[in-house]
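Holo prediction — SN-glycerol-3-phosphate.
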Amino acid sequence: MGKDRGVVIINFKAYKEGFGENALKLAKIAEDVASRVDDYVAIAPNYLDLTTIMNRVNIDVYAQHVDAVGYGSHTGRVTAEMIKEKGVKGSLINHSERRLRLADIDFLVSKFKELGLTSVVCTNNVATTAAAAALSPDFVAVEPPELIGSGIPVSKAEPEVVENSVKAAKNVNSDVKVLCGAGIGKHEDYVTAMDLGADGVLLASGVVKAEDVRAALEELLGLR
Ligand code: G3P
């Protein structure tokens, strides 16, 4: 992914609109819309849909969470090695709906580097963004939890969080890319985030739960 391209990662979460057949439709729309823009567009579907989707679309597919364990006696766990073996590009780590301990985040970021997976560490404010950047992940994604799923874009409601998170992260490690998320839905929200210094956005409901997913994604990417 080039430095000048905006980054858009769509998290399908556990939404019904983003699961099974709906997930595949959504992934195909994302692939099609992505082919018409310069932006880097990637998706993060549910585990159960990952391999089906990867076999059917040609955009990067991320997991929504990975457990901080290796292969072994761990019931119900998914490891970094497993997603690597399946061809997944990377994963969200420490999403606010799936928080991890600091030591687990550190373990996963290191493991991802070793395996060549892309790490997207989610944070909730400026201080945690700086702390996450110190672990040198590929991305830090700052998302104030109270705005998640609200339809109120973080880039407009709390621009200082975005701006200061970018400064704090780059101050710690200038190689870390910073995304922002929560309430992002419109092109204007995305552009504002980029103007505040972010490298892109992480979003879910604005696209996944939209009545017309194609129209929503095209609007987000400035095609309408
Ligand atoms: O992972 C993205 C997410 O937490 C933001 O959700 O619905 O506000 O775009 P949403």
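READOUT: The chain has one domain: 7-220.
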